[in-house]
Amino acid sequence: MDAALLTPEEMGAADRATIAAGTPGILLMERAAAAVAAAAMRLSGDGPIALLAGPGNNGGDAYAAAALLKSAGRAVRLFHLVAKEGLAGDAAIAAGAYDGPAETLSSFRPGDFALVVDGLFGAGLARPLEGEAAAAVDRANAAPVKVLAIDLPSGISGATGAVLGTAVKADATVTFFRRKPGHLLEPGRSYCGEITVADIGISDDVLDTIAPTTFEAGPALFQGRLKVPADAGHKYDRGHAVVFSGPAHQTGAARLAATAALRGGAGLVTVFAPASAVLVVAAQLTAVMLRRCDDAAELRERLADDRLNVFVLGPGFGAGDKARDFAQAVLGAGRRLVLDADGITAFKDEPQALFAAAGEAARGRPGGEPALVLTPHAGEFKRLFPDLAAEDGLSKLDLARRAAARAGAVVVLKGRDTVIAAPDGRAAINASGTAWLATAGTGDVLAGIVAAQLAQGTPSFEAAAAGVWMHGKAAEAFGPGLIAEDLPQMLPKVFAGLCG
Ligand SMILES: NC(=O)C1=CN([C@@H]2O[C@H](COP(=O)(O)OP(=O)(O)OC[C@H]3O[C@@H](n4cnc5c(N)ncnc54)[C@H](OP(=O)(O)O)[C@@H]3O)[C@@H](O)[C@H]2O)[C@@H](O)CC1
Ligand SMILES: Nc1ncnc2c1ncn2[C@@H]1O[C@H](COP(=O)(O)OP(=O)(O)O)[C@@H](O)[C@H]1O
Ligand SMILES: [K+]
């Protein structure tokens, strides 16, 4: 459960369960404030600190942190949206215990401070910021002052990462117990700065009843499910992945995916190419094997070899009838399929046919495990799920979850904040990677890395989450200037970090 991300509602439930088990809420607030005060000391040097306090418990944290900073001898000034008398519960207790002056938010001038601590709104943000709160946030953002956000930058939805009205651009954020989806989803992630998760004494046991369904994609989520070579293993134990190549003038994408599948850990990888492309592909492959495969009839013959357990279709393939026929043949044979790029576009006029084939294939698999992994970027997603993409107010998490349920597939909705969702409602958000991934062909590499995890027998959701995370880690390991070809070569470093 280390990978769990909690929605504001789930965090509220964790809070209530902890209080019901005997820890007073004010104690949780004091521990939260201690973590905030420690971060504030670190960020402010010796300079003066402004604390902005909102009307709820986020404001209570600000009052409690102000008290700690003041008693540590720091110059602090507190600015409130609502006077002390207007506060309730733990926030009122914390405000009562603060013996310094409190000024109105309208008198807050960020230029007077080395650090602003934002305690306006956290988990309880319920509507767009406006009026005095919005004006104070805009003033802080316009000034060259460091900002530390308590729990979430005010204005960022913890559930979706959306900006409601306006939002604090923080240099650092201290949150409590577990991160929230809004810390990892854009634009929220870009507003958080460096995120610290403070232990405030909430026990992990509360997660047993909360049963979170959203996770960060990372080793804590998939490590137990990821397959690594057994000591006395055979290459066939690690699966045989097939990547379909497009026509002679369009083979690069398939080669990228195939190399990535091999480096990603598949025991064997074969490119299936049309006769016209075989010589072109052959000239550029070594460990990756090659076979001719011209049409669906030939593919069905090849599918008789049940060691071919995973297929990648889409990169450079062409988005016509052939793509649809091949995808249906693979799913019809009960094999797992990573459908990317042209393979996704090919179904834009009849997505239902794809979803029906995916559903049928999943029903034939142990536990109804999804056979299909879809890896769309936002444009491809819109082609398959136009109604979802057009619906207002859906977060990237909502989009991927609804698409996965409809398609009976694991959906990997790509971008800086790639979301991986399964039909059973689980979802993961990835935070690895760099902006250098925004370059041609990196999506083809991702399809290959995901296929490699599937080939080795990792369950589809974990395989997709692991593949996305590794892809990002490979980009981090290479650093600036990467092109798609550089990613597969970095995978040994990623495995070294994972497997020791
Ligand atoms: N969970 C835990 O374990 C712990 C939680 N802790 C802390 O508690 C925080 C959550 O506290 P919270 O629930 O009181 O919510 P919070 O973010 O202060 O805001 C709610 C208030 O804002 C108001 N309001 C909302 N939107 C508004 C807007 N746009 N413009 C104006 N007003 C608006 C809303 O008013 P209403 O909607 O009722 O009219 C209500 O009065 C959490 O982020 C963390 O910092 C810690 O102490 C440690 C333990
Ligand atoms: N700014 C970014 N930060 C991190 N990752 C990114 C960014 N932009 C794109 N990516 C990642 O790069 C890959 C691009 O895939 P895709 O759009 O399919 O490109 P292509 O079709 O050229 O291969 C995806 O894995 C995506 O998540
Ligand atoms: K805040």
UniProtKB/TrEMBL annotation:
Binding site for K(+): 58, 118, 154
Keywords: ATP-binding, Isomerase, Lyase, Metal-binding, Multifunctional enzyme, NAD, NADP, Nucleotide-binding, Potassium
Bound cofactor: record note: Binds 1 potassium ion per subunit.
List of residues binding (6S)-NADPHX: 57-61, 122-128, 151, 253, 316, 377, 444
Annotated YjeF C-terminal domain residues: 218-498
Binding, AMP: 414-418, 443
Domain YjeF N-terminal residue range list: 11-208
EC assignment: 4.2.1.136, 5.1.99.6
Pfam families tied to this protein: Carb_kinase, YjeF_N
Keyword NAD assigned: yes
Highest taxon above the source species: Bacteria
HAMAP family: NADHX_dehydratase, NADHX_epimerase
Family per similarity comment: In the N-terminal section; belongs to the NnrE/AIBP family. Belongs to the NnrE/AIBP family.
Binding partners and assembly: Homotetramer.
Record's function text: Catalyzes the dehydration of the S-form of NAD(P)HX at the expense of ADP, which is converted to AMP. Together with NAD(P)HX epimerase, which catalyzes the epimerization of the S- and R-forms, the enzyme allows the repair of both epimers of NAD(P)HX, a damaged form of NAD(P)H that is a result of enzymatic or heat-dependent hydration.
Protein name: Bifunctional NAD(P)H-hydrate repair enzyme
Taxonomic classification: Bacteria, Pseudomonadati, Pseudomonadota, Alphaproteobacteria, Hyphomicrobiales
Underlying gene: nnrE
